[in-house]
């Protein structure tokens, strides 16, 4: 170990230890350009111990490894607003704990945040370095490297025990990012999450002994809860399957009734209006003879034409002239397709908002912008997304919309207009990949936490816990 004026010389990355937290090895980014030190933490839960503010949290100490999980507890010394590397501010818990770097050990302050999308689980900032450290940015692991075998040996006894709920994920594609993340998040929190293909499940309707089986005759009656992720193409059967689980006393994160409501675009808009929520002016008709009046009803061209059964921008057309609108409407009607016509909000400039609601709270939000030359409904085809902070009105609109549908989990799409925010639609099986990447929020973990609340399941946080009341 090299010393200069009694300071330890480190590289830009080093292995370190947190003895009091029980973290035996974690790779840190040593960055004198960062003021605050940060530790990757998820499932953060405020607690009280002997009247003092504490926090319980989980650490994934190894990058790209969510299965190695350490449960930690520490006293809270502060809550601060910290600006992350993306320029966004967030309020974080601050703890003080023992820190070991090489042969030296001292107390440092740490903020707790989700660093899953960052290169390192730990960031060592200049405040923690003080006058103890000098950084050589061209070097790495000046204080000793760790091999993969070293790390495996260190963490071999820290495998997560599954002692929680048994949860069924009802979906169609096990390789989909959203489905993999939900299974992963459940395992992180100690639950047994099993994927079941909706099309491979079948039901026994019997007053005395109802059952659900999957391929091979495996019975699914012992599940504690189900999470339905139903594709539009299998809405009818998926909702019937979810309803059968509900009839057996197995709760669903989103009920069959709520999913059915959200999938019927016309009915969902009518429910939203009944609750006094604002939507773009919309028209619906059965006969092609009413086309001209229908176009005028929504303010004329340009306007939006939507198939009631469309999803992810499919079956959505921007008609820029009245003649084009008439042609598209009559073409759809000739195919006996149900459709809506909707006013075009030009001031939105090809942008909309996706607010992710879990248990009545907006947990993440992003703004989506269509690619040049693309219509807003097609923004998933090459569009861009950025993290945003929604306004209080937008938050209220999203949570009220999810409540109107009866959805515990919902992706609520909103457009900004001169009259204020307007609801576009509500998705009962919203994708996680884009919004988790943009916001760095563990939304899959939020969904599993919602299942825990639904099942009245609580994690043991320690024998000294007195209350799990929120700490402000």
Structural features, described:
The chain is an alpha+beta fold and 472 residues long. The protein folds into 4 domains: 3-158, Acid Proteases (Cathepsin D, subunit A, domain 1); 166-262, Rossmann fold, CATH 3.40.50; 281-344, Dna Ligase, domain 1 (2-Layer Sandwich), CATH 3.30.1490.20; 348-454, 2-Layer Sandwich (D-amino Acid Aminotransferase, Chain A, domain 1). The protein has 11 helices and 27 strands. The strands form 6 sheets. It has a 6-stranded mixed beta barrel. The protein is globular, with a radius of gyration of 26 Å. The relative contact order is 0.12. Residues 461-472 have low confidence and may be disordered.
Entry keywords:
35% strand; globular; disordered C terminus; 4 domains; 472 residues; five-stranded antiparallel β-sheet; alpha+beta; 23% helix; Rossmann fold; Dna Ligase, domain 1; 11 helices
Which SSEs are present, and which pair or pack?
Blueprint: E1 3-4, E2 7-10, E3 13-18, E4 23-30, E5 38-40, E6 42-49, E7 52-59, E8 70-83, E9 89-101, E10 104-113, E11 122-124, H1 126-129, E12 133-135, H2 148-155, E13 166-171, H3 177-188, E14 192-197, E15 201-204, E16 211-214, E17 218-219, E18 225-228, H4 235-247, H5 256-263, H6 265-274, E19 282-284, H7 291-297, E20 303-307, E21 316-319, H8 322-334, E22 339-343, E23 351-358, E24 361-369, E25 384-387, H9 392-405, E26 409-417, E27 420-427, H10 433-439, H11 443-454
Parallel strand pairs: 2-12, 4-11, 5-10, 13-14, 13-18
Antiparallel strand pairs: 1-2, 3-4, 3-9, 5-11, 6-7, 7-8, 8-9, 9-10, 15-16, 16-17, 19-22, 20-21, 20-22, 23-24, 23-26, 24-25, 26-27
Helix pairs in contact: 3-11, 4-5
């Amino acid at each position: 170990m090299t010393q200069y004026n009694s300071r330890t010389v480190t590289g830009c990355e080093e292995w370190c230890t947190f003895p009091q937290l029980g973290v035996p090895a974690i790779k840190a980014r040593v960055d004198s350009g960062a003021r605050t030190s940060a530790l990757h933490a998820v499932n953060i839960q405020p607690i009280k111990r002997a009247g003092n503010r504490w926090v319980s949290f989980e650490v994934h100490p190894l990058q790209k490894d969510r299965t190695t999980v350490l449960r930690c507890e520490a006293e809270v010394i502060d809550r601060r607003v910290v600006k992350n590397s993306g320029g966004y501010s967030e309020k974080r818990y601050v703890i003080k704990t023992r820190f070991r770097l090489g042969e030296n050990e001292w107390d440092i302050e740490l903020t707790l945040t989700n660093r899953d999308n960052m290169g390192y689980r730990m960031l060592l900032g200049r405040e923690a370095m003080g006058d103890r450290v000098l950084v050589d940015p061209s070097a790495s692991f000046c204080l000793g490297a760790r091999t993969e075998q070293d790390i495996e040996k260190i963490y071999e006894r820290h495998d997560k025990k599954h002692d929680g709920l048994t949860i069924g994920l009802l979906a169609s594609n096990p390789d989909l990012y959203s489905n993999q993340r939900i299974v992963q998040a459940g395992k992180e929190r100690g639950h047994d999450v099993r994927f079941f293909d909706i099309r491979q499940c079948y039901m026994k309707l019997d007053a005395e002994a109802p059952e659900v089986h999957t391929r091979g005759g495996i019975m699914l009656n012992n599940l504690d809860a189900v999470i339905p992720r139903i594709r539009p193409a299998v809405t009818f059967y998926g909702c019937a399957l979810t309803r059968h689980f509900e009839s057996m006393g197995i709760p669903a994160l989103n009920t069959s009734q709520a999913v059915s409501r959200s999938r019927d675009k016309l009915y969902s808009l009518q429910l939203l209006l009944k609750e006094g929520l604002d939507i773009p002016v919309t028209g619906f008709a059965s006969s092609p003879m009413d086309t001209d009046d229908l176009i005028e009803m929504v303010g004329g061209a340009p306007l939006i034409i939507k198939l009631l059964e469309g999803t992810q921008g499919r079956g959505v057309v921007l008609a820029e002239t009245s003649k084009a609108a008439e042609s598209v409407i009559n073409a759809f009607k000739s195919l006996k397709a149900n459709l809506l016509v909707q006013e075009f909000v030009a001031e939105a400039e090809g942008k909309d908002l996706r607010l992710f609601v879990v248990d009545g709270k907006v947990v993440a939000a992003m703004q989506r912008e269509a690619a040049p030359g693309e219509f807003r409904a097609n923004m998933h085809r090459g569009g861009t997304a950025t993290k945003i902070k929604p306004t209080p009105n937008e938050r209220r609109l999203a949570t009220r919309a999810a409540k109107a549908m009866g959805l515990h989990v919902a992706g609520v799409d909103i457009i900004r207009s001169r009259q204020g925010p307007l609801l576009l639609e509500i998705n009962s099986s919203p994708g996680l990949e884009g919004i988790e990447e943009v916001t760095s929020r563990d939304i899959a973990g939020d969904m599993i936490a919602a299942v825990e609340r639904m099942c009245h399941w609580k994690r043991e946080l320690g024998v000294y816990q007195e209350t799990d009341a929120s700490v402000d």
